[in-house]
Each structure stands twice: as C-alpha cells, then as structure tokens.
Design goal:
It comes from Bifidobacterium pseudocatenulatum. One of its GO terms (cellular component) is ATP-binding cassette (ABC) transporter complex. With 227 residues, the protein is of the alpha/beta class. It has 7 helices and 10 strands. The longest helix has 18 residues. The termini are far apart. The mean pLDDT is 95. Bound molecules: adenosine-5'-diphosphate (2 copies). The site of one adenosine-5'-diphosphate has 3 residues, from loops.
C-alpha cells in the first residue's frame, strides 16, 4: 500500500467548543502499522474517520501515496475499516460477507469467490466459509471482518478498537494474528486502541495521542525503554 500523510489537520464537530483534532500530524510509511494510543476522547476515532473520509476536516491536508485526497469522498479513497463489533451481516455466511464488498465494486462471481476464499484462508477461516456469521464467536466474526476489509485490496487498512469487544484470551490470540496477517498482506495500517499492551504487540510505531494531537511517536522499544 501507499504511505499516508495527515498534515496540520483540525477537526471541529458542529456545535463543539473544542477541536477534536488540533494540528494533528501523522506520517506513515508504506506497509507500516501505526497504532494510535490514548484514553477515551483524545481523538483516536476522529483521526481514523477523517483519514477514511467519514468526517470532513476544517484545516490541513491528507495524502495517500503522495496523492492529495482531502475532500475526496469516502468511496473513492479505497480504504477499508474494521470496527469494534457488529459490522457483519448476521444473516449472511462468512463467504457472502467477504464477497459483498467485491460485488458492489462490480467484480464478477468467479473472481470474487476466488478473492474472498483467499482472504478467508489468510485469516484461518477457509473451513468456516459457509457458516452464518451470527453463529460464529466474536473472535471469528472479527476475523471475517478483517477478511472482508482486506478483500478489496485497500490502500490503507483502518482498525478501530477491533479487539475491545472480545474476552481477554481471544484478544491476546487475535492481536498476534492481526499482526501476522498485516505483515503478510503488506497493507499500510492504522490501529486505534486504548490498550498499551496491545499497542506494544502489534505496532511498528506507536503514536501517543492527547487532546487531539500526537504527543510522541516512536517504535515500541524506544517509547517504553526504561532509563
Ligand atoms: P477517542 O476515539 O480517542 O475516544 P473521539 O475521536 O471519539 O476520541 O472523540 C474526540 C472528541 O470529539 C471527544 O471530545 C468527543 O466527545 C468528540 N466527538 C466525537 N464524536 C463527536 C460527534 N459526532 N459530535 C460531537 N463531538 C464528538
Ligand atoms: P469511541 O471512544 O470509540 O470514539 P465514543 O463512545 O466516544 O466511542 O463515541 C461513540 C459514538 O458517539 C461515535 O459515533 C462518536 O462520533 C459519537 N460521539 C462521541 N462523543 C460525542 C459527542 N460529544 N457528541 C455527539 N456524538 C458524540
């Protein structure tokens, strides 16, 4: 995937008094996984949603692969997002869920089945392709959501607290899996979490957010090295 630049971005929600993003700056290298880490309300989701094009911004510029996408609508940015939970169609099978995004992009049946199965294999669910997602565990559902996101070959993958709704054991297992899958896919990724442990496990670099901007950004070892 391409790199990402968010330059001097301000976001103010209608009627709000504070800036949700306040001179926010972030540069991501192609193929890199950057974690945005911080407590509730610091602007992590807003940064992700602004990058995706789900929020308009009041100042600054956003570039992907060197191309200015500021103001480009969400469906033209070729990004894919995974949310905390409940983002799948429960009455569809895993395969149908993954194929759905390819179908609305106009891909033919044979090709989309092939691509969808490839991604289900990547997340370790090839043998569950025909199962309805409402019958799957939370961890399995998040794997399907990840497969669906990757199936469209997004330029950037956006993960918004993808593990937060899972119980501790599954969370630990799936965070290692997500990192493996991301490395294998080579997709430029932004991962939002409030969990430091999680950040340390998956990140190439961690951006620590506070009050709408990144206070510090570095690789995990540099950031948490003891003096
Ligand atoms: P985080 O993801 O770190 O919890 P958010 O990006 O959700 O933070 O929120 C950043 C700030 O913007 C918070 O003060 C939050 O209350 C505010 N905010 C988020 N979404 C909206 C919205 N739709 N309307 C108004 N304010 C919002
Ligand atoms: P997160 O911390 O994961 O962003 P929140 O609970 O802060 O989740 O927000 C959940 C939803 O509520 C989001 O869609 C967000 O945009 C919206 N929201 C958050 N804060 C506000 C706010 N102050 N006013 C209006 N909507 C808000």
């Amino acid at each position: 995937g391409g790199g990402v630049q968010m330059l001097n971005v301000d976001k103010i929600y209608p009627g709000a008094t504070n800036k949700a993003l306040d001179n926010f700056n972030l540069e991501i290298n192609p193929g890199e996984m950057v974690v945005l880490l911080g407590g509730s309300g610091c602007g992590k989701s807003t940064a992700l949603r602004s990058l995706a094009g789900l929020e308009d911004i009041q100042a600054g510029r956003i570039l992907v692969g060197g191309q200015d996408v500021t103001g480009v609508p969400v469906n033209k940015r070729n990004m894919a997002m995974v949310f905390q939970a409940y983002s799948l169609f429960p009455h569809m099978t895993a395969l149908q869920n993954v194929e759905f995004g390819l179908e609305i992009r106009g891909m033919g049946k044979t090709e989309r089945r092939k691509q969808a199965m490839e991604k289900l294999e990547l997340v370790g669910l090839a043998d569950q392709a025909g199962k309805y997602t409402q019958q799957m565990s939370g961890g399995q559902q998040q794997r399907v959501a990840l497969a669906r996101a990757l199936a469209v070959n997004p330029r950037v993958l956006l993960l918004d607290e993808p593990l937060s709704a899972l119980d501790a054991k599954v969370r630990v297992q799936l965070r290692d899996e997500i990192r493996r899958i991301q490395l294998e896919a080579g997709t430029t990724t932004v991962f939002v979490t409030h969990d430091q442990e999680e950040a340390l496990t998956v990140a190439d670099r961690i951006g620590v957010m506070n009050h709408g901007c990144i206070e510090q950004i570095a690789d995990p070892q540099t950031l948490y090295r003891r003096p």
